[in-house]
Amino acid sequence: MLKCRSVWRRLAPLARASSTVCRQNARRTGLNNARIPVREPAAHMSTGPTGGGGRENLLYFAMVGTTFIGAGIYVYRTLKEDKERYQDRINEIASRPQKAAAKEATLLHPEPQAVEATETKAAPETEPQAEPAVGEPSPATPDSEAPVAPSETAEPAPGGAAESVAVPHKLPSHTPYLLIGGGTASFAAARSIRARDPGARVLIVTDEPDLPYMRPPLSKELWFSDDPSVTETLRFKQWNGKERSIYFQPASFYISAEELDSAENGGVAVLTGKKVVHMDVRGNKVKLDDDTEISYDKCLIATGGVPRNLQVIDRAAEDVKSRTTLFRKIEDFKSLDKVSRNIESITIIGGGFLGSELACALGRRSNESGLEVVQMYPEKGNMGKVLPEYLSNWTTEKVKREGVKVITEALVKSVTFKDDKLEVQLKDGRKVRTDHIVAAVGLEPNIDLAKSAGLEVDPDFGGYRVNAELQARSNIWVAGDAACFYDIRLGRRRVEHHDHAVVSGRLAGENMTGANKPYWHQSMFWSDLGPDVGYEAIGIVDSSLPTVGVFAKATEKDTPKAATEKSGTGIRSESETEETAASTEPSSSPAPAPTPEKQKDDYGKGVIFYLRDKVVVGIILWNVFNRMPIARKIIKDGEEHADLNEVAKLFNIHED
Ligand SMILES: Cc1cc2nc3c(=O)[nH]c(=O)nc-3n(C[C@H](O)[C@H](O)[C@H](O)COP(=O)(O)OP(=O)(O)OC[C@H]3O[C@@H](n4cnc5c(N)ncnc54)[C@H](O)[C@@H]3O)c2cc1C
């Protein structure tokens, strides 16, 4: 025992010295890896306490050596075990998604609606920075740079849901913001809600199979695309040559409905292929067509409208109905594109903007394929309900030049199917034989939910009656085509246009978050008869009102194509700028009916004022672009003008 103690006394300083060297070396190594410290254990040993014979020294070395070897073995084993544990953990993590997916499949199997919604989307990704600024007057801009045209079948993006750990979720039984309808107004509302309430959880329910998309290109640019796969990609070249998708946002913009409750920063989810069939307004909840119930804090009805049909077709035999297209949705575009490639003759019934646009689009195609395109309507000229007669006549000539056989003052008496053709019999005895009909005869606002919700429908304009803040009842707002609203400037109205859907959707969204703002921003609408002729309009444009028109000769720059090229935008309502106008001389006195020969030049471009009680309530800018803010201001001011030629000078139509 004594011997041991004395050996330890001799060994201890040595061991301390040795460990000091190690620490110093370690420190040096740590500070300068390039310099390898010189180990001089002998020198260290020599600095240690003296004494002991050669045998004792040998013993010290043996003991120190054993200690080092033991420590080495320990370190090796620890590292090896750590490595094994690490590998086990990696394997376990790697197998988690399969396990979770299997578990999720078992859990979700009895609930088909949940399965369908899980399939929908790729990686949850909210883009709060993409939201418009609060109160920003510009319309919600569709994402022009959307990298892919998303669809229900879109593959999840790399790094998306497939790579994350799947956690089973159900559809939310409650959502703070419920938007019924997946169209333009709902999408605009979702954006403005998120702009004012960045963590908001917004659920859009739509009975269409698609994510929110814009409808205007369905009757315009998509028909002029050179891409043979345009019906699949739904990407198209705008008049300005830039390519974009008709979807407002790619799939990755949205989160899945099942994740809405748990997403840290909230988000916008779209439940596709589901219809709201009942509203319990007092209980703040709705029922879907699969009996799912969802309660809400605030609800927007943005159900748009359903294309009207002619009664004679509605009552006709199946042979007639199956050869008739009512044009509104993506699927209508796809089927009309296909049908029109396989027939000899097509007839468009309706002379409004939709009928005229489709006639021009198909007419152009007829030049290549020999397809006969007929357009018929009760008015005297194209867009006769909107344009003053002289301009409507001019437009009719333009449509004819596009290869369309136009039949004016045509009232359809019956449609039958005979000898493999449809026969359209007109009331004045004229007959047209054709293969297919497109009925573009207006829209019925979709008010299916009025009864269960106890909401008032406007007897004159149709649509849900709402106040100036677009509210129908407590916690319920209505926007877009379905809303009959009180315009604080122009009175009660219902508007069926893209920009109105954007403006009213945005306002409803703001008011759902407590803004309490009235409808004040006049929306505009536009129509293009192909890339060469187009107009933009604002306010009440009804050809039964007195009008005053001021025109100038158009140049090559005065076309929708040139305008979008210049502004760099595709959707016209996005191109609005706050331009101010300089004074210029008006070109002509108000609206004398010029001779047909003169019309061609005189109506190249111009401004048409619509008057009610001598006040301008509507303005059309004919082949005049990017001047909408001026028109908006004139309507907003609501003043009587002694000389509208002076007012027309604000639009600079002679300057370009
Ligand atoms: C081919 C075409 C071209 C157009 N071109 C122009 C143009 O050039 N300029 C212009 O200003 N305007 C144009 N418009 C009009 C414009 O697109 C509409 O005014 C606009 O889409 C209206 O938007 P919204 O959101 O009110 O309705 P919609 O876009 O119709 O959306 C309503 C959605 O709600 C869904 N829905 C309805 N009921 C339910 C329910 N109970 N449950 C769930 N979902 C439901 C519908 O299926 C639909 O998807 C065009 C329209 C069409 C069809």
TrEMBL record:
The gene is aifm1. It is found in: Cytoplasm, Perinuclear region; Mitochondrion inner membrane; Mitochondrion intermembrane space; Nucleus. The chain crosses the membrane at residues 58-76. Residues 508-637 form the Mitochondrial apoptosis-inducing factor C-terminal domain. Keywords: Acetylation, Apoptosis, Cytoplasm, DNA-binding, FAD, Flavoprotein, Isopeptide bond, Membrane, Mitochondrion, Mitochondrion inner membrane, NAD, Nucleus, Oxidoreductase, Phosphoprotein, Transit peptide, Transmembrane, Transmembrane helix, Ubl conjugation. GO terms for cellular component: mitochondrial inner membrane; mitochondrial intermembrane space; nucleus; perinuclear region of cytoplasm. Signal peptide: none annotated. GO terms for biological process: apoptotic process; mitochondrial respiratory chain complex assembly; positive regulation of programmed cell death. Monomer (oxidized form). Homodimer (reduced form). Upon reduction with NADH, undergoes dimerization and forms tight, long-lived FADH2-NAD charge transfer complexes (CTC) resistant to oxidation. Also dimerizes with isoform 3 preventing its release from mitochondria. Interacts with XIAP/BIRC4. Interacts (via N-terminus) with EIF3G (via C-terminus). Interacts with PRELID1. Interacts with CHCHD4; the interaction increases in presence of NADH. Functions both as NADH oxidoreductase and as regulator of apoptosis. In response to apoptotic stimuli, it is released from the mitochondrion intermembrane space into the cytosol and to the nucleus, where it functions as a proapoptotic factor in a caspase-independent pathway. Release into the cytoplasm is mediated upon binding to poly-ADP-ribose chains. The soluble form (AIFsol) found in the nucleus induces 'parthanatos' i.e. caspase-independent fragmentation of chromosomal DNA. Binds to DNA in a sequence-independent manner. It comes from Takifugu rubripes (Japanese pufferfish). This is Apoptosis-inducing factor 1, mitochondrial. It catalyses: A + NADH + H(+) = AH2 + NAD(+). Residues 178-504 form the FAD/NAD(P)-binding domain. The keyword Cytoplasm applies. Its cofactor is FAD. One of its GO terms (molecular function) is protein dimerization activity. Residues 149-164 have a biased composition (Low complexity). Residues 97-164, 556-600 are annotated as: Disordered. Belongs to the FAD-dependent oxidoreductase family.
